[in-house]
Write a structure and sequence with these properties.
mainly beta; globular; 2 domains; Collagenase (Catalytic Domain); nine-stranded mixed β-sheet; about 375 residues
């Protein structure tokens, strides 16, 4: 006899699913539009399996509007999550709020400066309120932690359009047919983030492109941020040939716009030899389209990329103002401003910072640590 759904959910700690679904974007000038989304959802049982809390919820999609080329990403903000048995099934309802950010490439930046930092530009997240209802059924009694989504409808609505130049207010989707994995108790979920460095050279004959200290900067990220639960995967560098950019001191948005990786599940890092004024910048901190730009100060500050990476995964500086939307970093950690430590960010990080790291491009892997 198989273990009942209720017994399984009470015995196990987390529910996780990664999925690829078609999402409907409603109320556009051209009627409904369809887009293919990559997504993930992780829930944790509380109260002995009677209800859940959302650990991770994200959706990613590129090029969702004919009016723009860009990336749409979502994140869970909060709300009520309940679960109850219905015969052999388990019904889970998420009633709450998500935030949506659309990075419009080539139309408007969509960025605002952080009220607490000159090196951070924040995305304009916009709230959508709605409901996601899931009905789970045991897929196979011999596969203890695997369920099928019998029905799973989600619909979230904004008070106004969340895409520049369009009238899109609603996103809706169906998770029916997706596989759901239940993570055993006392297990840790592995997540992975990919980094892509971008270097510049003046011509094909230029044998000394920017990014000469990439290895040292990457070592700082791995040393301070990599843990068994967070795998940091560096991609091979891309070299862009364009006269004058290597020593550029221009606007960081101009530099970061000179190359865009076709994959939207990656954080790009642009390295130049020019003086940017603040050493490094993070654009769209915490969003799927987060980009990092490093200037010549990276030569003397080996933790500069580790500092900016912290912003890319949603972290702010310690002691932020009340209206700072990023999570607050630990005092004395690598997210301290370098000016307070002789121009070098501290070579230290905290477990609290690492556990808070969040970005829609940090995707869960269906492997769990004991």
């Amino acid at each position: 006899m198989g273990v009942s759904v209720k017994q399984q959910l009470e015995a196990l700690a987390n529910l996780h699913t990664a999925f690829q679904i078609e999402v409907t974007l409603e109320d556009t000038t051209e009627g409904q539009k369809k887009a293919l989304f990559e997504g993930y959802l992780t829930l944790r049982t509380i109260g002995g399996g009677s209800c859940f809390e959302v650990v991770d919820f994200g959706l990613l999609a590129p090029n969702i509007s004919d009016l723009d080329t860009g990336i749409l990403s979502t994140r869970w903000v909060g709300g009520e999550v309940t679960a109850q048995p219905e015969g052999a099934d388990r019904v889970i309802s998420l009633n709450g709020t998500i935030e949506v950010y659309y990075d419009s490439i080539g139309r408007e930046s969509g960025f605002i400066y952080s009220p607490a930092a000159n090196d951070v530009r924040l995305p304009k997240w916009r709230p959508l309120v709605g409901v996601l209802n899931l009905t789970l059924r045991e897929r196979d009694a011999t596969r203890f932690n695997e369920f099928i989504v019998v029905s799973g409808n989600g619909r979230f609505e904004a008070f106004g359009s969340f895409i520049p130049g369009a009238i899109i207010k609603v996103i809706s989707f169906n998770l029916a047919g997706q596989t759901v994995m239940l993570v055993p108790p006392n297990r840790r979920q592995i997540r992975r983030v990919r980094l892509r460095p971008v270097f510049f050279r003046d011509s094909e004959n230029d044998v000394s492109p920017s990014g000469g200290n990439w290895t040292e900067q990457l070592e700082g990220v791995l040393r301070l941020w990599a843990i068994p639960e967070l795998v940091i995967h560096p991609e091979p560098p891309r070299i862009v040939t364009q006269q004058g950019v290597k020593a550029d001191e221009d606007d960081v948005e101009v530099i970061s716009g000179l190359f865009t990786d076709p994959s939207y599940q990656i954080i790009e890092i642009f390295m130049v030899d020019g003086d940017l004024g603040f050493g490094g910048f993070t654009i769209a901190a915490g969003a799927a389209s987060a980009k990092i730009v490093l200037g010549k100060e990276s030569v003397t500050n080996p933790q500069l990329l580790a500092h900016e990476f912290g912003h890319a995964v949603g972290g702010g500086h310690p002691r932020p103002p009340d209206d700072e939307p990023l999570w607050e970093a630990t005092e004395g950690s690598v997210l301290e401003i370098s000016e307070k430590f002789g121009g070098t960010n501290p070579d230290m990080n905290s477990d609290a910072n690492r556990q808070r790291a969040a970005n829609p491009v940090i995707l869960p892997i269906r492997i769990w640590l004991p």
